[in-house]
């Protein structure tokens, strides 16, 4: 595994709390993160998913400090598939870290988890996320109309996939 990534630890709760407070980042979490306790609960959930073999989340490191998250979740063994997601703290964006992390987690999913197909999607109004996906080798597969619903507004998403044979 690339030294760019490491599993989250409970000691990282302050980083999670700070990330969740950034604009629009609350959408990246499966629960409200409004305290250190909530941040620790989120990290505990990630650890449980790893134990259950359903998801593998990693802190993305810059100079040894966590600045983002990359994950392969919805691990499905029968069809050998998984769902890739990523986010970066504001100060770490635009440095290529998300693309490198996405490549690294893909290699982990193919070599360590034995998955064959990885999928991800991003809102059409997020060209930076599209650059991460394509830069990490994920081919565009199509648009899902009105897929996401945030703050009373529906958003189209673009779906990408990467195969172990790509």
Lay out the secondary structure.
Elements (H helix, E strand, L loop, with lengths): L4 E3 L5 H9 L14 H16 L4 E7 L2 E12 L4 E8 L8 H15 L5 E7 L3 H9 L3 E12 L2 E11 L3
Parallel strand pairs: 4-5
Antiparallel strand pairs: 1-2, 2-3, 3-4, 5-7, 6-7
Helix pairs in contact: 1-2, 3-4
N- and C-termini, Cα separation = 19 Å
- CATH class descriptor of the domain at 5-120: Alpha Beta
Note the total helix count: 4
Largest sheet at a glance?
A: 7 strands, mixed
- Which sequence of strands runs across the widest sheet? 1-2-3-4-5-7-6
Pfam family, one: Acetyltransf_3
Organism: Lentzea flaviverrucosa
Keywords: Transferase
InterPro entries: Acyl_CoA_acyltransferase (IPR016181), GNAT_dom (IPR000182), Ribosomal_N-acetyltransferase (IPR051908)
Descriptive overview:
With 166 residues, the protein is of the alpha+beta class. It has a domain at 5-120: 3-Layer(aba) Sandwich (Aminopeptidase), CATH 3.40.630.30. It is 30% helix and 36% strand. It contains 4 helices and 7 strands, in the order E-H-H-E-E-E-H-E-H-E-E. The protein has helices at 13-21, 36-51, 97-111, 127-135; strands spanning 5-7, 56-62, 65-76, 81-88, 117-123, 139-150, 153-163. A 7-stranded mixed sheet has the order 1-2-3-4-5-7-6, with helices on both faces. Helix 1 (13-21) crosses helix 2 (36-51). The chain is globular and about 40 Å long.
């Amino acid at each position: 595994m690339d030294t760019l990534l490491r599993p989250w630890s409970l000691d990282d709760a302050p980083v999670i709390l700070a990330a969740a407070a950034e604009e629009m980042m609350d959408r990246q979490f499966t629960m409200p993160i409004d305290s250190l306790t909530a941040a620790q609960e989120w990290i505990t959930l990630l650890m449980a998913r790893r134990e259950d073999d359903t998801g593998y989340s990693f802190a993305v490191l810059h100079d040894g400090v966590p600045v983002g998250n990359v994950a392969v979740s919805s691990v499905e063994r029968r069809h050998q598939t998984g769902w890739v997601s990523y986010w970066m703290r504001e100060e770490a964006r635009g440095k290529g870290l998300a693309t490198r992390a996405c490549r690294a987690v893909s290699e982990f999913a193919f070599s360590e988890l034995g998955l064959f197909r990885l999928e991800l999607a991003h809102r059409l109004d997020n060209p930076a996320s599209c650059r991460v996906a394509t830069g990490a080798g994920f081919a565009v597969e199509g648009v899902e109309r009105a897929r996401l619903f945030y703050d009373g507004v529906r958003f189209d998403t673009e779906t990408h996939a990467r195969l172990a044979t790509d």
